[in-house]
Structures are given as C-alpha cells and as structure tokens.
Inverse folding.
C-alpha cells in the first residue's frame, strides 16, 4: 500500500490502548517501503510519545522514520511513519 492514513480515534481505540499499538504495527507492515502511513491517535491514553512511539521505534528500528505532524483540534495526535525498508510481517 502507498501513502495512506489510519484512523485510531474511533470508539474501539478510545477504549483499548493495546489495540492502538497492534493496529499501528499492522498499518506499518501494510505500507510499502518508500511510502508513509499517517497514524491519527486518540488522546484518551495520553501523549503517544509515552506509550506508542517507543514501542514502534523498538520494533522497527531503522526500518521506519517517525515524525510528529500535529495535534488535532479534537486533542488527537498525528504521526507520519515513513517506511524506509521492508519489515517482517507479524504472525496472525
């Protein structure tokens, strides 16, 4: 998949922080190298710099570049994850 956005601000994500992490990883894995996915994350679990971004950086290391884009008027956070090389797909 090329450039795209993943909405992680719906009710199921507001209630489940682990689902945010899980689906963020799936989104990265579905993104083709050379492209990016924007992750729009609800603010209900606090700033993703404290719980999501460290997990993604630890898992994908040099395979991705992660940049904070903006905090929405609704309070959510938007990150752009640029995939620099192929990542290993997670087992289902």
């Amino acid at each position: 998949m090329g450039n795209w956005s993943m909405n992680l601000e719906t009710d199921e994500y507001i209630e489940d922080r682990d689902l945010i992490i899980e689906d963020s990883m799936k989104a990265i894995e579905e993104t083709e190298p050379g492209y990016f996915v924007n992750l729009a994350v609800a603010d209900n679990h606090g700033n993703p710099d404290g719980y999501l971004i460290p997990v993604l950086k630890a898992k994908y290391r040099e395979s991705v570049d992660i940049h904070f884009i903006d905090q929405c008027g609704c309070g959510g956070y938007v990150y752009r994850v640029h995939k620099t090389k192929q990542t290993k797909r997670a087992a289902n």
